[in-house]
Amino acid sequence: MFSEQKKRPFFKRKMGIVLLSVLAVIIIAALSGFLYVKSALGPVDQKSKQTINIHIPNGTSVREIAGILKDNGLISNDAIFTYYAKYKKASGFKAGYFHLKQTMDADTLIKKKLTSGGTDYAFQLVIPEGRQLSDIAAIIANQTNFSAKEVEAKLDDPDFIQTLMKKYPKTVTSQVNGKQVKHPLEGYLFPATYPFYREDESLETIIETMIKQTDQYVKTYEKKDMKKNMKTCPYMMC
């Protein structure tokens, strides 16, 4: 009888320890799960400055959209994103091209982007005034799969420059190959906003689009200058 009474407190203490251990495991597991889900719904890279362009076809399901986001490094877990979108009762996901960043969390992707409608262009280049060629190369690299070094190499490629000289003789003249010229196309890429409609647009096409814009500007300026001269000297013999 005495031995049984002695065992009971020990048994209770042992059960208490077991219950506390189980409770601790449950709390740790719940906390770990919460932190994991929170991390999965947060930004993939808060320091990233790159814009990632994706295309959502018509009729794409939420699960398929999550897969596209995961494949492009915009979310870390497609299953959690899918369940979260359903939990938020998110609907009305639009088709089109979307220009997203890894700094966006799940709420931003859902509320401000994917349900607000995409664009009809695959990516867009915004070239501000006064930027050097190296800056423009970085802008192109940021919006495409080309590296800045690849862009700079193409901009300085003699064969490519010869092609441009033949296509745009009034704009890309022999002066670009002067001995003192470090980068032949420095100052020839017109500052503007350029939408491109193919995800795999070639580097040649991207650069030539800017050169073409410069060429159009030169021709327009020449016409205005010619009209001005005609008013001053209408017989072109002055």
UniProtKB/TrEMBL annotation:
Pfam family, one: YceG
InterPro entries: MLTG-like
Keywords per UniProt: Cell membrane, Cell wall biogenesis/degradation, Lyase, Membrane, Transmembrane, Transmembrane helix
A GO term for molecular function: lyase activity
GO BP field: cell wall organization
UniProt protein name: Aminodeoxychorismate lyase
Native organism taxonomy: Bacteria, Bacillati, Bacillota, Bacilli, Bacillales
